Amino acid sequence: MGTGRPEFGPPEGAEELATAADIDAQAFAMSLADSTAWLEKAGPANLRVLRERGTVMATALPIPMGQWYGGRRVAMAGIGGVGVAPGARGRGLATRLMRHTLEELRSVGFPLSVLYPATQPLYRRVGYEQAGSRFEIRVQAHALDFEEQSLTVRPIQSSDQAALQEVYRRHASTRQGYLDRAPYIWDRVANPRKETAYGFLVEGSHGVEGYTYLVRRRMVDLKQEISLTDFVAITPAAGRKLLSFLGEHRSLALEVVWNGGPSDPLLFLLREQTYQVKLLFHWMMRVLDVPAALEARGYPAGVSGTLHLEVADDLFPDNRGSFILEVSGGTGHVQRGGNGLLRLDVRALAPLYTGFLSPEALRSVGALVADDASVRLAATLFCGPAPALPDMF
Ligand SMILES: CC(C)(COP(=O)(O)OP(=O)(O)OC[C@H]1O[C@@H](n2cnc3c(N)ncnc32)[C@H](O)[C@@H]1OP(=O)(O)O)[C@@H](O)C(=O)NCCC(=O)NCCS
């Protein structure tokens, strides 16, 4: 029997929230108590459900945050918690749920959405495409034999939060794709699920220069793995000091592990290449609002040019058609019109936008059609460090 509630929206009342928690417990192999606690922490008002004949059948958890591109913060909605009740899978519910979610996110002004896909066809169908990476960096603790004497290390206290967030912001704003973290993500850094993280910072005469949160995992024979939920150094001395501090765990710790991009500059400091860098995920992005996304990001200073694009989008008519992107002084302005010499689907715009794939690479796999001059210009406008995310959501 129907409840008269709309097909899509936040869960209403304790019963719907309990159904959502049950769907997510089964989707993500968690206990019901853990999935309930997770949804409470994320905030039930942020959760979205899809109902079928009045019963909650699917969930998604949009997380409002931002990402840094070209030194500017672009509003971005992360999506987690996509789950469909077992027995209701394979009949298009997740696709419908994602369409509703994207329509809502676009209508409230998010130009971008990002997620980690468990399956790509579902998300490609609604306009997402691979746009960046998350790597695991694994270093043997005995390789961290620095003896950096400058700066001091001390435990993080709650009164340090503002300084830490400022250090993180300075670090993230120089990377491509790093999060402007929501409180939900900061909480996962300091309080990872089922583990205890200890925070340490390094400071010099001008204040905090870096910090890390580490989890000590016990292995066989009392040996340990040190897993970092965050690792930020904004000065060379802070990087060396944090690495020496981690190396001081080497009597029992075998390895130190953190997440980041394909070429972490800290590895440059090591004597030998005994570390391993492993791809964990390619994350996917959906450009929800083409002109807003192109105008919100930063571009390389000192580069100017006018790029003519023609975009196809099955879902959002306002994204379709020809646009002129004019870049100068690090800023992009977009207007409608032009000759649309660089043609692509909104999906292919995501890896172009983040710099995950060059326009030449996209052309080589048929994801973009353009003349050589447009390809060369797009390559300079969208160049930057490899887009990466240390955070998972
Ligand atoms: C993945 C999941 C959300 C798909 O829900 P769904 O309602 O069955 O999805 P749809 O019917 O809309 O199918 C969309 C696409 O998802 C993929 N898909 C569907 N069921 C799938 C499954 N059981 N395993 C892997 N991929 C699946 C398919 O590619 C499908 O497209 P296709 O039919 O063209 O092949 C659902 O299987 C689920 O809850 N799984 C467990 C949790 C999970 O993996 N969540 C995703 C986290 S990113």
Compute the CA-based radius of gyration.
22 Å
CATH topology of the largest domain: Aminopeptidase
Q: Can you tell me the residue ranges where pLDDT is under 50 for at least 5 consecutive residues?
A: none
Helix content: 25-40%
* Count of DSSP H/I helices: 11
Supply the CATH class of the largest domain.
Answer: Alpha Beta
**Span between N and C termini?**
35 Å
Total tally of structural domains:
3
Would you tell me the structural class of the helices and strands?
alpha+beta
CATH superfamily of the largest domain: Gcn5-related N-acetyltransferase (GNAT)
Descriptive report:
This protein is α+β, with helices and mostly antiparallel strands. The protein folds into 3 domains: 120 residues, Gcn5-related N-acetyltransferase (GNAT) (Aminopeptidase); 148 residues, 3-Layer(aba) Sandwich (Aminopeptidase), CATH 3.40.630; 93 residues, 2-Layer Sandwich (Nonspecific Lipid-transfer Protein, Chain A), CATH 3.30.1050.10. The protein is built from 11 helices and 18 strands. Strands 1, 2, 3, 4, 5, 6, 7, 8, 9, 10, 11, 12 and 13 form a 13-stranded mixed β-sheet that branches. A 5-stranded mixed β-sheet has the order 16-15-14-17-18. The model has no long low-confidence stretch (mean pLDDT 96). The site of coenzyme A has 16 residues, from strand 4, helix 3 and helix 4.
